[in-house]
Specification:
By secondary structure, the protein is α+β, with helices and mostly antiparallel strands. The protein is built from 9 helices and 5 strands. Keywords: ATP-binding, Coiled coil, Kinase, Membrane, Nucleotide-binding, Phosphoprotein, Transferase, Transmembrane, Transmembrane helix, Two-component regulatory system.
Length: about 425
């Protein structure tokens, strides 16, 4: 239908241009004849208009006749093409190719390459179209179209055998594609299910590990706190009583017994040294300042004590942004990280100076410990118990600890923990 409309418009434009040119030519000839007759016959203006009108009506009649003939021809052409399309559609609907014969064998295996399957399908369809066009009979459009098509086995010869072979290949290829699609869909669904299960199990395991690690750290800290209190209370009192008794014994000995008094004086020195060690152990286990005064005074005291104990190492402690105390659990973890970092500096780093910077930046607390020691290669050293303990403590409260080091350039420990 669209083709007929286009043809009609083209013909109409052509006829219009042709008739317009003819009209102009007639008008020019009419003017020329009128001017040539002026010398013999004189026409009035009304007669000239009437003559020109008669000529235009003749041209209009000729133009509409031509348009009518072109329209009839286009309609006939469109009708013939439509009938041909209808006949071809009827042939395709009545074609027995839609019925799959029982003797067609399907493949047992799935093709490895989907592109090969698509190429086989297209090749089979091209062969079938070519054979249908070659075998198309020249029937009368007015006669009813009937076609009987039977599938031929692969042993038959001729075009029908080729057609059956092409159809078999197409069915085989389609079957392979469907089987491959089903297999891949099943495999993908199974893989997604396994992946989701693994992810959920891993998340659950990580959550349980964090919970157990937090409980273990909390239990260890409580045990250390109890042990520190016992050392301070029980042993402290016992040592104090022993010290007072030995001093009383020293006072009771006469001055002329200098040897006995010197031995008692040495014994008093050992008692005082033992008391200092017990206080040091108790402070390492759980300092009382941390519970009483908070993190900042405790770290300041600990850094000064470390410098006095190891004069060759200078420790510079700074804190920024702390206007109030944070969670006791976070305070304890930060204190343990600083404590372990300074112990590692004393044992391995051979450093001369250490910087300890603690910054409160809501919603995190950032700790940085940097030394100028020998450093180590992180790729060859996975970390000792102390480094692992730092990370476990930070992870238990959803924090992080990053350790960066390089031989000859020192070590930097950076920790980020939530405020609460």
């Amino acid at each position: 239908m669209l083709l007929g409309i286009l043809l009609f418009l083209c013909c109409a434009m052509g006829v219009l241009v042709y008739e317009t040119n003819g009209l102009i030519t007639e008008f020019e000839s009419f003017i020329f004849e009128s001017s040539s007759r002026e010398s013999t016959v004189t026409l009035t203006p009304d007669q000239q208009v009437a003559a020109f009108s008669t000529m235009i009506r003749e041209k209009q009649s000729h133009f509409f006749s031509t348009i009518l003939v072109a329209l009839i021809a286009i309609m006939l052409t469109t009708l013939i093409l439509s009938l041909r399309h209808v006949i071809r559609s009827v042939r395709e609907e009545d074609h027995p190719a839609a019925d799959i014969p029982d003797d067609i064998s399907l493949p047992d295996t799935v093709p490895e390459a989907p592109d090969m399957v698509r190429s086989e399908i297209f090749e089979a369809l091209e062969k079938m179209d070519a054979l249908l066009e070659e075998d198309e009979p020249a029937n009368d459009p007015d006669e009813e179209f009937t076609a009987d098509f039977e599938f031929i086995d692969d042993e038959d010869e001729g075009d029908s055998g080729v057609l059956a072979d092409s159809y078999n290949k197409m069915v085989e290829a389609l079957q392979r594609t469907n089987e491959l699609e089903k297999e891949l869909s099943s495999q993908l669904a199974d893989a997604n299910a396994r992946l989701e299960t693994e992810v959920s199990e891993r998340k659950r395991a990580e959550k349980e590990i964090r919970h157990l690690s937090r409980q273990l750290i909390s239990g260890t800290e409580e045990a250390q706190k109890k042990l520190a209190q016992d050392l301070h209370d029980e042993f402290g009192q016992t040592l104090a009583a022993l010290h007072m008794g030995v001093e009383a014994l020293w006072n009771s000995i006469p001055e002329e017994m200098t040897g006995q008094r010197d031995r008692i004086t040495a014994l008093i020195g050992l008692i005082e040294e033992l008391g200092d060690k017990i206080r040091s152990i108790s402070s390492d286990l759980r300092p009382d300042l941390l519970d009483d005064l908070g993190l900042i005074p405790t770290l300041d005291w600990y850094c000064r004590e470390f410098t006095e104990k190891y004069p060759r190492i200078s420790v510079d402690f700074q804190s920024v942004g702390f206007k109030k105390r944070i969670s006791p659990e976070i305070e304890l973890i930060l204190y343990r990280i600083v404590q372990e970092s300074l112990n590692n500096v004393m044992k391995y780093a051979k450093a001369r100076s250490v910087e300890v910077m603690l910054t409160y930046s809501y919603p995190k607390v950032i700790l940085m410990v940097r030394d100028d020691g020998t450093g180590f290669d992180p790729g060859k050293r996975t970390g000792g118990i102390g480094l692992i303990g730092m990370r476990e403590r930070a992870v238990s409260v959803n924090g992080t600890v990053d350790i960066r080091s390089e031989k000859g350039k020192g070590t930097t420990i950076r920790g980020e923990l939530p405020v609460s």
